[in-house]
Amino acid sequence: MRALALSLIAVTPIQAAWPNYSHRLMPAASVRLIVVHETEGSYDATVAWFRNPKARAAAHYVVGRDGRIAHMVANDHPAWHAGNSYVNAHSIGVENEGLVEVDGTVTDAEYRASAKLVASLLKRYHLPADRGHVIGHDQVPDPYHRGQYGGYAHHTDPGRFWDWARYMEYVRAYRAGRRPPPRPVDVTLPGLALGAGVTGVVPLAADAANAEHVDFLVDGVVRATVTAAPYTWDWDTSLEANGRHVLTVRAVAADGRSAIASTVVASSTPPVPPPDVTLPPLAEPLTGVVQLDPVLTGRVARLELWVDGAVVQTVTSAPYGFSWDTATVTPGQHVLAIRAVGPSGKARASIQLVTVQ
Q1: Which site in 179, 318, 328, 352 is 20 to 30 Å from 91, CA atoms measured?
Q2: Other CB atoms closer than 10 Å to residue 34's CB: what's the count?
Q3: How far apart are CA 143 and CA 229, in angstroms?
């Protein structure tokens, strides 16, 4: 495979499968476009798919969220990436790791690596750094239906969350030989690949720049806020339904500006059973203030004291126990219950019929 001579860009040659691209030559003068894609999966999965002869598709390059770049089809061969044979014969395809419908899956490192690659391609093919020559897959005409786009399969990538303003700013800077300045606020969530499987307690660590605090969100809901570095949080997947979840970190600066980073994972954690609770037999008749110290097994989020079907006390942290003033009820028989609630909301109770004097 011919290696692309791009100065100061680390590109790894990884050959796409033979049936996934055209083997006729594409002269440099034919290249008029750079087509930007989003992978809808991880970098590794995309590279593996383009190496699979059953794919019947490939792009020239795949860019990862960590800035890695795989060169999979030589630039002088048309890659089958656009869903339009004319565009394929006149373009270079660049796949970027990310998900179209999830905001924040493309990192700043990825934008920069991709923009630097595209800037070098524009220079090589003597093309201007504008949106007429750097287009999205969603702008490729459907070759069979006038007025429709995204190629014949109507792809929508790179999608509504792709930051074209940032990307083209970077492309123009690199095209002019300048390095774009750092983002005023930035955050990443390294260590979890798109589509990764998780189970149990997952330690999350956000890398944030110029942040006053960092929020950790699961499926759009803030679960924790950390106000100082290191920005870490342990995500207990046993508290979630098994399946797909969007993890997001949001860095917020003192002036209110913010940045987010997201990934999507699949959790498969056995459900946590409710805690066991046993209230030892009480010496009757009860009188005065009675100490109730149940025996607990398992994870307890909340302990409740019930008297005659109503909650009268709640404890949310250890030590888990109650001091119950029997003077609050009339003498006679009463139903006493200690209910232990686990983190997932599941609960068990220990019930006694007691006599108050």
Answers
A1: 179
A2: 24
A3: 52
